[in-house]
Specification:
The protein is of the alpha+beta class. It has helices at about 1-65, 95-100, 110-115, and strands at about 80, 85-90, 105, 120. The chain binds zinc ion. Zinc ion binds near residues 93, 95 and 121.
Length: about 120
């Protein structure tokens, strides 16, 4: 009889352990479901991020296509002299403005006007 009691208690212990294990398995199952859910959310977030990155790269490529062309800079003529006159003037000088286009000679600097034999007008001094 004493032995039966012992045996019964052992069974009861095993039963209790099994119950604990089953509840543990349930907890783990729920955790797995949670993780799968998190995983799905992360995947969709990464998809969105991937699209954003791809759009950014496309925009960058478009920008590279539209790089500004190098504009050749033509210096503005600043010094002018008349073929019939002896003095060189700045473009802004009244004498330069009254000069006939047909007689006008253009120089890129005072020096080149002087080298061509012109004297410098007061407007350049
Ligand atoms: Zn002048």
């Amino acid at each position: 009889m004493k032995r039966d009691m012992k045996l019964q208690r052992s069974f009861a212990n095993v039963k209790e352990d099994m119950a604990h294990l089953y509840s543990y398995i349930d907890t783990m199952r729920n955790r797995v479901v949670e993780l799968e859910d998190t995983n799905m959310r992360l995947i969709s977030a990464m998809t969105v991020l991937g699209e954003i990155v791809a759009a950014g790269q496309k925009r960058q490529l478009d920008c590279q296509k539209h790089t500004v062309k190098k504009v050749s800079y033509k210096p503005k003529v600043r010094v002018v002299a008349s073929k019939t006159g002896k003095k060189a003037h700045l473009n802004s000088c009244a004498f330069a403005k009254n000069m006939k286009a047909i007689n006008k000679r253009e120089f890129s600097s005072k020096t080149s006007a002087r080298k061509a034999g012109y004297k410098l007008c007061k407007c350049m001094k």
